[in-house]
Write a structure and sequence with these properties.
Shape: globular
CATH class: Mainly Beta
Helix content: 10-25%
Structural class: mainly beta
Strand content: over 45%
Number of helices: 1
Number of strands: 10
Strand order of the largest sheet: 2-3-4-5-6-7-8-9
Order of helices and strands: HEEEEEEEEEE
Largest sheet: 8 strands, antiparallel, barrel
CATH superfamily: Quinohemoprotein amine dehydrogenase alpha subunit, domain 2
CATH topology: Lipocalin
Distance between the termini: 35 Å
Number of domains: 1
């Protein structure tokens, strides 16, 4: 239930920002993308929801730029879930995504293999030297991205 509530609130916020942008108020340099399947690779954002080790719920999105990947991650169990920067690369079917704090410190490393409906793999905490399993499902939602 908490996943659904978090996703709904996230979707509602993103959609309200997106509606303003569609009416020409683009002074914040943001764009809203719908993560449903599209044939335009420049507009496609991948969104996922699931958990780490069956106990830490997460919501993640990313966009691909060739073999580079960038996006954000939210730990949705936190009352004030804030976006954590994701940056990484894809090599064949495997993706390596790094969770980074604003100062550049890496706080988590994801090794995952996404397919059309799910993403499985591991999450590594370099501070505590622990590896946990991850399992996420593809979701369709709206994501607002600040333009570079």
């Amino acid at each position: 239930m908490q996943y659904l509530l978090s996703s709904f609130l996230f979707l509602l916020i993103c959609m309200s920002v997106g509606c303003k942008l569609e009416h020409g108020e683009d002074n914040r340099r943001e764009r809203t993308y719908i993560t449903a399947h599209t044939n335009d690779p420049d507009r496609y954002i991948y969104a996922w929801q699931g958990n780490i080790d069956g106990q830490y719920p997460v919501l993640m999105w990313y966009k691909e730029f060739g073999d580079k990947v960038a996006g954000s991650l939210f730990y949705t169990a936190r009352k004030n879930a804030t976006a954590i920067q994701l940056s990484g690369a894809k090599k064949g079917k495997e993706y390596e995504l790094r969770e980074m704090l604003p100062d550049g410190r890496v706080i988590g490393i994801w090794h995952v293999q996404p397919d059309a409906v799910s993403m499985e793999g591991t999450w590594y905490d370099p501070r505590q030297d622990i590896t946990l399993n991850v399992s996420l499902m593809h979701i369709d939602t709206a994501v607002t991205v600040i333009a570079p």
